[in-house]
Design brief:
The chain is α+β, with helices and mostly antiparallel strands. Helix content is 36%, strand content 24%. The chain is built from three helices and five strands. It has a five-stranded antiparallel β-sheet with strand order 3-4-2-1-5, with helices on one face. It is globular.
């Protein structure tokens, strides 16, 4: 998706649709948390990397007891992901991940950018099959 303001809304719509198609707890607090995470991460790409990253990609992986959201961009800057050092938006993301027994990691990618992974552990609400979604 392009790194422009309208992409924040579109990312949430696409994520909600993809999760519903995989029967991932429709209408649950988990889906709301995932949508907030996607919103925060895509907004951060637009706000902080738009001049260095003309596009971003969202990847979602769903398993029997986990859900992982990844947002990749082409900016090589690795933001801090500890609650004490992260900015306000990333602190929210860290808190939501921890609420669901997960965490946040950042990894560099081949094209010189990075991907931020947000892990959720939630065995009671996820679909019983594995799926990867690329939005």
């Amino acid at each position: 998706m392009p790194t422009e303001l309208a992409s924040v809304h579109q990312a949430c719509v696409s994520t909600q649709t993809a999760l519903a198609e995989r029967e991932v707890a429709p209408g649950s607090a988990l889906v709301d948390a995932v949508l907030l995470v996607v919103s925060e991460l895509v907004a951060n790409v637009v706000r902080h990397t738009g001049d260095r990253s003309p596009s971003a990609q969202i990847v979602i992986s769903v398993g029997a007891d986990y859900l992982v959201v990844g947002v990749a961009d082409r900016d090589p800057h690795i933001p801090p992901t500890t609650r004490a050092d992260a900015g306000e938006g990333l602190r929210t993301v860290v808190d939501l991940a921890k609420l669901y027994g997960g965490g946040v990691t950042v990894a560099p990618v081949k094209h010189g950018g990075k991907i931020i992974f947000v892990h959720f552990r939630c065995p009671q609400v996820l679909a019983s099959h594995n799926a990867s979604l690329h939005l």
